[in-house]
Specification:
Elements lengths: L18 E5 H12 L6 H9 L8 E5 L11 H12 L1
Parallel strand pairs: 1-2
Length: about 90
């Protein structure tokens, strides 16, 4: 995907702090439609979006809904999410 040159114009201070907020459901669906699979790691995406405009580490916050374990078929998704989040 070509990089939009306007991205580099957004911040000119190399000491600026950048934080990227990712909506997990939108990222999942967009990756599935665009690439044919829903896998995307949010931290490299945040680094790419921030570009080379900052010398500081880029912070990334990932938000997602939690599957309802009371709905048939969703309990295993909730267990998998718990396992991934708790290490």
């Amino acid at each position: 995907m070509p990089r939009d040159p306007r991205i580099d114009e957004l911040a000119t201070d190399p000491d600026a702090r950048v934080m990227v907020f990712v909506d997990g459901q939108n990222l999942y669906n967009t990756c599935r439609r665009t690439f044919g699979h829903p896998l995307c790691h949010p931290h490299p995406l945040a680094q790419y979006l921030a570009g080379a405009r900052t010398n500081n580490p880029v912070a990334c916050r990932f938000y997602t809904g939690r599957p309802n374990p009371n709905v048939p078929g969703e309990a295993s998704k909730a267990r998998n999410l718990d396992r991934r989040l708790n290490g």
